[in-house]
## 1
Amino acid sequence: MSALVLSPSAALEPPCRAKPLLARLDPRSRVLAALAFALLVVCLRSLPAAIAALMPAILLALLAGLQPGPTLRRLAALEGFMILTLLSLPFTMGGPALFSWGDWHWGLEGTRRAVLILTKGSAIALSVLALLGTLELTELGHALARLRVPPRFVALFVLSARYVDVLRAEYARLRLAMRARGFCPRASLHCWRSLGHLLGMLVVSSLERAERVHAAMRLRGFNGHLHLLDEHRASGLDWGFAAALAVTGALLAVLDLA
Amino acid sequence: MTPLPLFQLHDVHFAYEAARPVLKGADFMLHAGEKVALCGANGAGKTTLFHLMVGLVLPSQGKLSAFGAECRREADFHAVRARTGLLFQDSDDQLFCPTVVEDVAFGPLNQGCSRPQARALATEALDLVGLSGFEDRVTHKLSGGQKRLVALATILAMKPQVLLLDEPTNGLDRDARTRLLRVLDGLPQTLMVISHDDDALSALTRRRVTLENGLLSG
């Protein structure tokens, strides 16, 4: 039988590096911490407190061992999303103008508000990237289940996480087959129709796959309950982390009210 | 007196669309300990026959008995499914849990095992297919061959008496195929295999049944 034994390390996963601090926390703590931190930051009203909130967010990113390049790109994507609001605020909030150009007045209050939104958004995004972005989707599913999120949602989440890759592979295969026959996207009716067929085919094949998966689940006695085997325990590290977060939160709140 | 067959199909008819019947009065018996190859052209209805045997689809006419009891409704098949393991053509259809151990333990947990029992059964099944140590791996990140073996383990963990294998070697490379065949060859279960891989069929089976024009012969 020995020839049959496969080595678990033969997989396509990246080699395991030394685990950063956040990775040693119970995933539940990370979900709760992300939620608590985001709620707190959303409630901040003063600019100094919002800027101060960036500090723990950056610290979390460091503790999670996030790569600077991709992280900044993701933040830039988020800020690009907000840019219209940020640019229009100084012109629309009124109040004393910082400088004027004809009828256009760049207002102080609007600038303050824009910077506030930018810093708060960045702090939340950074903390979520650090706390949740580094979790495996399966770990996140387990954590949600143990946080008593309704089982139906957890099942939906876990199954989506499982099959999104399969769907993506199916999409990639179909796209490749199209390219192999000389398809290149253009703004033409033919192109839109072909992409429509591609999407339609994906929907149909996903539906069929869902039926086959459900059949396989029924064969193994599925009765609406997805069993998760997970033995994470909260350790001293988690309590220490929670305490540090609580102190940080309290300091931010005091700074905000001062 | 010969012992009662595990599966007995008598004059079974089935059609997905009335105009194109798949089975037109199929008769078939599967006895304990048999190793049967199910042959037939693409689209002949081989997979459908497997699905009928475990009640995923119901015959429009005819009689189907499994393990000595006649099966007519969905509820009649619950006991059949616990004793019959069906391996799907595409393992991605079969493995839906986040981690390997959860997937393998899913069946036993549904059968009412406690968590430690289910875990032990899962470990044992993974051992049997040569995948010890794969418990906490993420299912969708496995290779095709590993997925097929895990899918087999999910079935074996339920301790079935009969295995229905739908193209088990399909899409596997030579090493994975050899590994799978070696595992299958060592299993004591009654076996029924659909395959176009003649070498695999002659290695695994001793009786050949052909499905043609909606009828079973051989």
## 2
Amino acid sequence: MKMKKIIALALSCALTVGLLAGCGGDKKPESGSNEIVIGLLANTTGGAAVYGISVRNGAMLYIDELNAKGGINGKTVKVIEYDDKGEATEAINAYSRLVSDGITAVIGSVLTGPTIAVADETFEGNMPQITASATAAGVTRLDPGNSNEIRSNVFRACFIDPFQGEKMAQYAAEKLKAKTAAVIYETGSDYSEGLMEAFVAKCAQEGITVTNTEAYATGDKAFQAQLTNIAASQPDVIFCPNYYEDDGLIVTQARQVGVTGTFLGGDGWAGVKDYASAADLEGSVYCSGYGSGANPEFEAAYEAKYGEPITGMFEPLGYDAAMLLCAAIAEAEKQGLEAGSDAYKQAIIDAMKATNGLEGLTGTFAFDQYNDPIKSASMMKLEGGAEVFTELF
Amino acid sequence: MHLFSILISQIINGLQSGAIYALVALGYSMVYGIILLLNFAHGDIIMVGAYAVWFSMAHLGLHPIPSMLLAVAASTLLGVLIEKLAYTPLRSAPRLSLLITAIGVSFLLENSFQLIFGAGAQTVPNLISGPSLQVGSVTVSFSAMLTILVSVICMAGLTFLVQKTKLGKAMRAVSENMSAAQLMGISLNRTISFTFAMGSALAGVGSVLYLCTYGQASPTMGSMLGLKAFVAAVLGGIGSLPGAMIGGFAIGLTEALVSAAGLSVWKDGAVFAILIVVLLVKPTGLLGKPMVEKV
């Protein structure tokens, strides 16, 4: 009887020790270890998964290349990735898991909604965050439209929509030496109106006279009336910040009514070559986040790793987001701080903010006061019915 | 450019789109004139015609000319087929049933094309190109000249057919009094089918002209085009052929001038405002005959 009690006691002691041992094993990554742990949030399943997968693959390509070259400061960059399914609540849950996994910075998310949801969380914990692709103003600004307060810890690699309007106005002035411009845009489309307003404002600064600002309604197919007005003032350039189907129709009809100026557009133009004749499009220029063919080396490496070619600008943006973050981490490492500590995170944020002239696939990076990148855009020109990358501008 | 020449250019723009509206409006008016049906599937026949051009050029590799002929043939056939399958069984049913069937056929066509060919637009660039005409500072594009010319020829042909031939006489007789015409030995089925064939052939021509200018076919292209042509038919007086022509050009001109004035966002609004005003002030339209309901 006594023996039994002793055995039971011994057994329960052993169990307790076992439990405690279990607890001890579940530690956060040790500081000073050979790993820097970062998180990656992307919607690799669900409706817009094609973007999520592209960004994820692009980012992982950079990290793998970096680790193959010896990582940062002799430490390997370890990526813990979760799928947020493109949903805000999933993204917040995934982010909480990342925090308990002990990450020191996060790349993500991909779509605007989950990115803003996560940004609210990272802002509270002052966790460095960079998104490759979320374009909405509200990602880096706390209350866009009402205040200029920003989430100081959140950055993005892509340019926001109005930026393209400014770029094209600059391009018109500097490269095309344009003196006059006209705009034809779709009313009721945030994208189209955003680009139009930015273009017109920048034209005023660049000394370009905007002769006509013509609008059309969603679904319109006939643009001759507006284009005839434009033809009457025969501007040097016509800015057409719409999507490719409309752009194709507009260019075709513009040539019919005798508009001879150069057409300029935003990234909505991608694919326009199939929607108007080569002759009508010849010489038109649009800007894009990344021009296919701009970096054959990257494209070949991507295809070698994943077995399929890049789909557009999302892979290079993912790559650049990872690059920007790792460059900032390298700065924090230089200061000899402890990975995962608050000081370390702040050092990453400061280094990111101070980014100046970092060469990425999609341009040369610096950040403005809103943590939006100031970088060059890929200029795509329509030549002989093909959309050809010409330069970074 | 001089203000006057801008005005001339805008009028040509209006005539160009008006010509297409007129061709479609004729189909509406003819069908209404003969069986009192507002054939809301008529706009979608244009869509099918446009897809026929695209399909025969892009997939069968045909030259533009046979493709166009094929499109007109396909539209004609489709019009007759719709009449035989959907409307003939309902000829003695209440007119409301016919109207609802027409809307159903329209949805069926739009959605099945979306299912088969996808929702995006298919392009037929450079269907026909030629030199544009330069008169002073006014540029008249080749497609504008072609559109206006072809549609005027079609309208003249139709007028001749309706006024001078036996079939035309039969059509007029049926539209006047269906049972009396039948008593006189006119084949009702043949005449009605012929009317649908004519109207759909005009829509087929319209689809070719549409592609000459716009170069894109999409599954829903026919719905707004059809509605505006319907407004044109009502404005001219539904059932009246010259009325449909005038109405079509009037709608086209209204659109062009409203857009030119910088109110392009109100373009559709202006067209439908015309419909409301016509229905309030002169429901029979410009050239329509007042109809007495027989008890």
## 3
Amino acid sequence: MVFDSKIPEGPLAEKWTKHKFNLKLVNPANKRKYDIIVVGTGLAGASAAASFGEMGYNVKAFFYQDSARRAHSIAAQGGINAAKNYPNDNDSIFRLFYDTIKGGDYRSREANVYRLAEVSNNIIDQCVAQGVPFAREYGGLLDNRSFGGAQVSRTFYARGQTGQQLLLGAYSALSRQVAAGKVKLYKRTEMLNLVLVEGKARGIVARNLITGKIESHSAHAVVLATGGYGNVFFLATYAMGCNGSAVWRAHKKGALFANPCFTQIHPTCIPVHGDQQSKLTLMSESLRNDGRVWVPKEKSTVEKIRKKEIQPNDVPEDERDYYLERIYPSFGNLVPRDVASRNAKNVCDEGRGVGETGLAVYLDFRDAIKQFGIDVIKAKYGNLFQMYEKITADNPYNTPMMIYPAIHYTMGGLWVDYNLMTNIPGLYATGECNFSDHGANRLGASALMQGLADGYFIIPYTIGDYLAGMPYDKVPEDHPEFKKSEEEVKHRINKLLNINGNRTVDEFHKELGRILWENCGMARNETGLKEAKKEIRELREAYWKDVKVLGINEELNMTLEKALRVADFMELGEVMIDDALDRRESCGGHFREESQTEEGEAKRNDEHFSYVSVWEYKGDNKPEVLHKENLKFENVKLTQRSYK
Amino acid sequence: MSWFTETFTSSIGRKLLMSLTGIFLIMFLVIHLLGNLAVFKEDGGEAFNAYSAFMSTNVLIKSVSYVLYLSILAHSVIAAWLWISNKKARPAGYAVSNANENSTWASRSMMLLGSLVLIFIVIHLKDFWWQFKMGGTTDFEIDTLGNKNLYALVAAQFKSSATLVIYLIGLIALAIHLWHGFQSAFQTLGIEHERYTPAIRFLGKLYAVFIPAGFAAMPVYIFFFK
Amino acid sequence: MEKGRSYTLKVWRQKNAASRGEFKTYQVNDVSSGSSFLEMLDILNEELTKKGEDPIHFDHDCREGICGTCSLFINGRPHGPEEEITVCQLHMRTFQDGQTITIEPWRARAFPVIKDLVVDRSAFDRIIQAGGFISVNTGAAPDANAIPIARENAEVAMDAAACIGCGACVAACKNASAMLFVAAKISQLAMLPQGKVERKRRAQKMVEQMDKEGFGSCTNTYACSAECPKGIEFTHIARLNREYLTSKFTS
């Protein structure tokens, strides 16, 4: 297997500029002769589709939601990073690059991350011009805040709804291109297969979710911007419809999958209330700027609170364990997400977790309210407090919040080169569904940045380089390859509809989630992973024998939609485990219990694992083959992260 | 479509006409009330008759009165037009509706209230305007100042309990119509300001109570005290 | 947290856009008071599936009140009885044990029913396509701080921009009017210097499209604002009227 990351030579700061100059161009008059398919209309997809339309390409944009405005980028709260250095606090492109590489625990490509930092400033300019109402100072200039433990204030935000505002900005740009006739939207349409003609990505097969019609769509290039696969865990902060099917279908057609075990766990989610729960709600990490995380020092205190003999506020100062402040005196409550999450798990494992389930820790604003006054806290976090109260019926102004980590983001995804192209010519992956920029752990406020960087400022340049070498001819949609792909899809659907077993799709999905959360979640070890691999295989077999999918294909059938997605998750979950087994080191979101320091901190092993794991599909029921892309670090010195 | 039809057939354009005619009618009501206060003068109706004669002969007033007729007509016709298109916008209704939780009854019943007011206006015009100005069925006496004695007709009409009830119903409908309509007219015009809008709303509510109450005072006064 | 609650649900069932729908009554048991309304429907759907009955179709996605997908008319109100939330944020503790709950789809000519409680809201997309944007190509933007914007204006713009496009305003309005939705976008862009350039054209195009879609007109009942999950105020409708009328009379 040959795959070339195509990272340009030369000094880090000049790579992108030089590379751009070397990219081939498509003559403006010829752009309209090329069709591009974009799957997904989140930040990465909508921004790319809009930009392609503006440039003159014909774009077809597909999404399973009823409107392009609803993709889950909309739920991002905290903000978007950029190296503007407006607050004059010594931020720079290099510093943003450095923080991102370090935050990703040195498992990402230097060149990609530098480029991300480089274009970050353009994103802010673009969004402001689109009418995104970022927070402003009284002087009328943009406000910044420090986020997720960054030592500089580089995060731009729009109240607690930054993702929503950025997405609506991209959606409005997209809408403009729809009106101009350059983009055609396919709502409630889900990609179910990738079509290759002569080894190149030439289209997709999709299901119209309302009529059930299986449709072929041909194009000169296909861009996947389908987000992460975190819903493999069943309970996650993802939207209910988020799925890994598009990337998984691409993988099965030969696209390489990188670092599948790198999943991010976000420390500030609302804890699970019981077994009827369908999803988890995240609360912005900005809460950790002022909230103090603690659990009682003694288990007996936990019991008393649970029996309602005392209230959390009654616990005296010397009986509280502000464990993050204790273990990490310099970063305290602002340690990165993986560290905060793992420590929450540790105290809960010790039996000091609070709440009905014992799987929660306190996030307390008592001291912040005392220090700054209730009005200041309300102005900063009012909407988050309100959201918390709506869900839990507890008022965080009076009693500490309860939080627990939850699956939030997947750093892994389709392998792409510097041009964001997968190893399949003409197939691109942007945003969360590629692996490229966040290594083993993503920093706060960087997901929005990457989605928009890819969509607005990277792929519009790189796709031309590929298209310039493509003939204008279109592959007809009745080409045998399309027909074959359609048949594959129809076959799967019929198979699912005809099983008529006894267990619902959700029952299988919950079980899959449990297996992965317990064995491939916040802490992983060889025994557990091997057991999980076995369990997943058994579950997958049972799925294809005993799942109950009602109704027919030719109607709106949400059970069938979900059944197709879960079927793919069953396969994807296994590669996650393979990858977690292979990576016998702890790094970022991946914590192997076998690889920790005496103090229980993650221990990276740069000597043996400084590579991107690249998995190749070899056929059903055949083991996936691991390839390695070695990571070269020429501009940063690898250090063990320390937040002490 | 021409600019004119495009503007005034759009939903906001039609609302603009509703607002402008509404505001004109609101202003008219003030003038109408002030003039009619002459009813209360204990002079056997001389002042009232003189006022009526002035209103029906002055050229300026006469021309404004055409605007008035047109306003009433336009306000009613456009209302019906809007009402029909609004009904079309929701062909299938809800089985359970709990609209009191989100809006006032008055705001949702403008068509009903407006229809009642229109019926009332027709009766009112038949009672006096048609008799006085269009010949009607009444032979007017001439009062001491040489004016037609409309006052005598008014006094006679308002002695009937049926008329009193009809007038009170009409005026109550008008009051509720104005309770919502006054501020609504300004909202439609886009007149909205943190400081002034609350004042407009307050004024609207005062107006909605006191103007119809002032009108109601006349039949009530004549029925009970004359 | 209280477990074991029961509810009687009267739910609108409609096989597809062409068929006639009807209410069906279901009993759902063993619901925890901490469950969300949609989780309660999930429980019912699991039971229905096990019994071999077609599960109730309803739109939902993020389940944290921001995507605007969920859209149920519950006991006579869009998004149910609580203020400023979407259905997915509504929790069963709001309802008494044993209560009967009626669930209907959004009702409007412009939002035809697709199946059960799922409606087609593409009309909103077409309104945005008509002019709900600032015409700036990627890469053509000046520095973000080149144009200062008074904080007060940015805040008003943000208030309006909070719209999630769920359609509760249309569902609540007795005229099925989309004025609050349109106003939110027009107001947001009218408050920002970047949006002022195209404001006249935008107001005219968006209102024209709104009318074309078959939404009703505004009677200023303000039911829309009262039911808006994001608390968008009807003052934005006044701004829309102003924008539209000034654009009409000055262009």
